[in-house]
Design a protein that fits this description.
- This protein folds into three domains: 82 residues, Arc Repressor Mutant, subunit A; 105 residues, Periplasmic binding protein-like II (D-Maltodextrin-Binding Protein, domain 2), CATH 3.40.190.10; 101 residues, D-Maltodextrin-Binding Protein, domain 2, CATH 3.40.190.290.
- The protein contains twelve helices and 15 strands.
- Strands 4-3-5-15-6 form a five-stranded mixed beta sheet. Strands 11-8-12-7-13 form a five-stranded mixed beta sheet. It has a three-stranded antiparallel beta sheet with strand order 10-9-14, with no helix packed on it.
Length: 315
Amino acid sequence: MDRLQSIETFVRVAQAQSFAAAARQLRVSNSVVTTRIKQLEDFLGAPLFHRSTRVVRLTDIGQAFLRDCTELVGHANEIVDQMRDVRAKPSGVLRVHALTGMVLGHFAALLRRFQTTYPDIRLELIVSDAVVDPVKAGVDCALQIFPAASQELVSRQLFFVRRVFCATPAYLKAHGAPENPRDLHRHTLGLYSDYPTRDRWTFHHRGQQVTIYLNATLLTNSVHLLREYALEHAGIVCLPTIVAGEAILRGDLQVVLPEQQLSSFPLCAVYPDTSRKDFKLRLFIEHIGNEFTHEPPWDAALIAKGDLPARMIEG
């Protein structure tokens, strides 16, 4: 029995609460995972999991064993990464989960440059609009605009995500442009469903704040669907500038209430505290941070055009 390999498999099963999910993460068969866990249990002389057709949960012994095992696996990976650091040839697999709206359209070039610099690191990028716990999802980090879910997770800010209300010129010509935030009640609205503030929207203008509750005609967790909805002249939508910027610069979309600012959310890399010193992860996060040291390019272009105020309201 390879003890470290079996311990890593135990940690994966415990975090994912699934033998099958752990097998997918480790890229081995379900039977291999089952065998490793059984060998470890035989070696310890005690069961680590309660198993049923639906649930896999830790026994009391398994629960007591987990923290030390998680730290052991993290430390082992850290030692290996330090050796790779010395050799200046980092390698291995880096698993990242990212929100769709934050990566489509802007991250491909960033990833290409990262892999040109570190060709031996293989990226597994899972893109979805779901909010995940990186530990349970079996990824090294999650790129998200939401705060870390527990104290066991570390959150590192990368850049701010700004938002604007916008619509096509044709829609605004047909229905009129809102002159103040409360005018939005008279329009067809498309809104993102998963912002931390939910249905409460606060507008900032010349040091004053107005908070209103908005009911959406279309409520969705896909900002790309909202953009397409707006381009169909269907209504006014609220979009992150990372998604709306190109359409606004082309004139396909027009910012409404340009002097009324919404708060901005930080995009963060969220990862387990045990991965804090992971070499591959550190390189990846530093690469993103270096790419967006100042104003993100999509915001800089909108500011230069006069469609976005230079001053940002942080959420």
